[in-house]
Amino acid sequence: MASSFADIPRLDPTVRQALWRRHPVEVAKELIGWTLLVGGAGGRIVETEAYHHEDPASHSFTGPTPRNAVMFGPVGRAYVYRSYGIHWCLNVVCGPDPGSAVLIRALEPTQGLELMAERRGLADARALCSGPGKLCQALAITREHDGMRLEAAPFELHPGTNAGLIEGPRIGITKGVEAPWRFGEAGSKFLSRPFPQSSAKVRVRSRTPRP
Q: Who contacts 48 (Cβ-Cβ below 8 Å, separation ≥6)?
């Protein structure tokens, strides 16, 4: 089996489902550089965070609830929740065991910029999707998308490449803060916020996805 998501044809659901069952840290790294679209609007994923079912910062840590039920279902699905009662946040359900997910923190907008700007009420491309709540507003993602397949309409998810990875501590949590499970594309201007200066750049092999 190929070792990278980007080596897998998009239309091979059996193999791709197996890859979604990797550890969320691996999935979070692999998704940097992929293109995520919802209804034709979106862009390249440039920032993610991993959450494992044994991670005290994960919504699944204490077990299934009506809110996190999707995390305990099939992998490759959208887990959507509201943060602080204000912002929707999009996650990809993954992992070898139930209860893990990857939070999509930021996108580099590439398609549907006018529509996303209208939804966000601003025109600055750097600010359209530079945070989990911002990108959900730009893509019109709500609780209605909870449980939907990320590789079926209205979602599109295409393999891609990145210029290298930066890793560091996750944002906005009080537990599991020592885990360096936040990942971003090196040099990206579309991150939700800068990484600590001490964050190490991890160069990745250049990949050309199959059609």
A: 28, 29, 31, 32, 102, 103, 104, 105, 182, 183, 184
140 and 69 Cβ atoms separated by less than 8 Å:
no
DSSP 154-169: TEEEE----S-EEEE-
Instruction: Please say whether the beta carbons of 20 and 175 come within 8 A.
Output: no
Do the beta carbons of residue 183 and residue 199 sit within 8 Å? no
**pLDDT, tens digit, for every residue of 178-200?**
899 999 999 999 999 999 876 65
What confidence score (pLDDT) does residue 18 get?
75
List Cα–Cα distances, 30 to 142, 181, 197, in angstroms. Answer: 25, 13, 22
Would you say the pTM of this structure is higher than 0.85?
yes
Give every CB contact of residue 3 below 8 A, 6+ residues apart in sequence. none
Asked if 102 and 157 touch (Cβ cutoff 8 Å), the reply is no
Question: 95-110: buried (b, 16+ CB within 10 Å) or exposed (e) per residue?
Answer: beeebbbbbbbbbbbe
Read off the DSSP letter of residue 71. Answer: G
With CA atoms as reference, report the closest residue to 98 among 51, 148, 141, 157.
Answer: 51
Residues of the chain with pLDDT under 70: 1-15, 198-211
Percent helix, strand, coil in the chain, to 5, is 20, 25, 50
Cis peptide preceding 13, ω within 30 of 0: no
